[in-house]
Design a protein that fits this description.
This protein is mainly alpha-helical. Helices cover 59% and strands 9% of the residues.
């Protein structure tokens, strides 16, 4: 959360001349409801079911740049789909950076708490090893302009052997 997936994903897609898809936005478009509303009505498990179906569908698409929600890696089915669907770039941000980037965003149901920094620390402790398990490339985003991150991603992807 707050690592820059959507911002950097859009810029990367533009550089690669590929369509950009954000799994959360695709869910919102299909349901006509925003993510917090889905969390409120269906709970996190209901949202995660929708997310899993969307990720499976998007990973079957050829030639896209996909940004997922931060918790997508929690399900092994999503990790498998992402790994099989193409190259996986893990954008890592410190908790301090995440707090700063998400402080005014009311569209993050898991952060509707009195201590969002602790929630982010707890989530990172669980999610970080899962991201690293499937990542082809790990990129640090703290204090870096999105365009510089994209240049780094392109260089790192170019170094990878073909699959």
């Amino acid at each position: 959360m707050g690592a820059g997936k959507s911002t950097i994903g859009r810029l990367l897609a533009k550089e690669l001349r590929l369509p950009f898809k954000d799994s959360d936005k695709e869910i919102e478009l299909r349901t006509g409801a925003n993510i917090p509303w889905i969390f409120d009505k269906e709970g996190e498990p209901g949202f995660r079911d929708r997310e899993q179906a969307m990720i499976a569908e998007l990973c079957d698409s050829d030639g896209i740049v996909l940004a997922t929600g931060g918790g997508a890696v929690m399900r092994s089915e999503n990790r498998q789909a992402l790994h099989a669907g193409g190259r996986v770039v893990y954008l890592h941000a410190s908790v301090e950076q995440q707090v700063g980037r998400t402080a005014r965003d009311r569209n993050r149901p898991l952060l509707r708490t009195g201590n969002p920094a602790q929630v982010l620390r707890d989530l990172l402790a669980i999610r970080d090893p899962l991201y690293r398990e499937i990542a082809d490339v790990v990129i640090e985003t703290d204090e870096r302009p999105p365009r510089m991150v994209v240049i780094d991603i392109l260089a790192r992807l170019a170094e990878l052997p073909p699959r």
